[in-house]
Design goal:
The protein has 235 residues and is an alpha/beta fold. The chain is built from seven helices and nine strands; from the N terminus they run E-H-E-E-E-H-E-E-H-H-E-H-E-H-E-H. The longest helix is centred in the C-terminal third of the chain and has 19 residues. The structure holds hypoxanthine.
């Protein structure tokens, strides 16, 4: 039965879903899958299901931010039988030892989003991924030639344009990078008894005027995708 944001039928999604932020990326990922078919396109958020090395895999974009990813992840877990969602995205490096193109496996996600705080008042909720997926992703990333992988906490922020020195202070507390979705995905997976992980490429270094070329963005994204698919290949 279609949901408010997904027009697919029951069984249209595979138990494993790749979730980029960008709907155009979702279309590009679908081209990597075998026999990918379009299963939903509400609001231009196209979802596809196909196979990768013989395993069924779907892809659906999350849009940007905790509310958006929470909607799509909830509907996939709750109504479409999805069991595992891996976010493949980008993040801004804040720890001094990160470089452009490095891979970050978010083993925890701090957040300034109020979503879990309002749902579970009185606790500082720990937004954590599936350990099995995180361990598989780290070992897949280590096997990638010329790749530096960092496993550690990120900040999931509601604000792309932030003010003040929160990021500097978090970096001093061991936080690697900032992005906008992981904590929402992890909390949703917990609430829906699913599994989740965020694997991200460092696309910028916060506070430094450095950028990746289009080619670098493409090759680093492909690497994050390979790592995510390898993580999903482990049961
Ligand atoms: N901030 C938030 N989200 C991001 C960033 C950033 O600098 N880079 C990529 N995603």
């Amino acid at each position: 039965m279609p949901t408010p944001h997904i027009a697919a039928q029951p069984g249209d999604f595979a138990p494993d879903v790749l979730m980029p932020g960008d709907p155009l990326r979702a279309r590009r990922i679908a081209k990597v899958l075998t026999d990918a078919r379009l299963v939903t396109e509400v609001r231009g958020i196209a979802g596809f299901t196909g196979t990768f090395q013989g395993r069924p895999v779907s892809v659906l974009a999350s849009g940007m931010g905790v509310p958006s990813i929470s909607i799509y992840a909830t509907e996939l877990f709750r109504f479409y039988g999805v069991r595992r969602i891996v976010r493949v995205g980008t993040c801004g490096g804040i720890a001094p030892h990160l470089s452009l193109g490095d891979v970050v496996v978010a083993t925890a996600a701090h957040t300034d989003s109020a979503l879990t705080a309002t749902r579970l008042p009185g606790v500082h909720y720990s937004h954590a991924p599936s350990f099995a997926l995180a361990a598989a992703a780290v070992s897949a990333a280590r096997a990638e030639e010329g790749t530096t992988v960092h496993a550690g906490p990120v900040l999931t922020s509601d604000a792309f344009y932030s003010e003040g020195d929160l990021l500097g202070r978090l970096a001093a507390h061991g936080t690697l990078a900032v992005e906008m979705e992981a904590a929402g995905l992890y909390a949703t997976a917990d609430a829906e008894h699913g599994e989740a992980l965020a694997v991200m490429t460092v696309s910028d270094l916060v506070g430094q005027d450095v950028e990746m070329s289009a080619d670098e963005r493409e090759s680093t994204f492909e690497r994050a995708l390979r790592i995510a698919l390898a993580a999903l290949a482990h049961d």
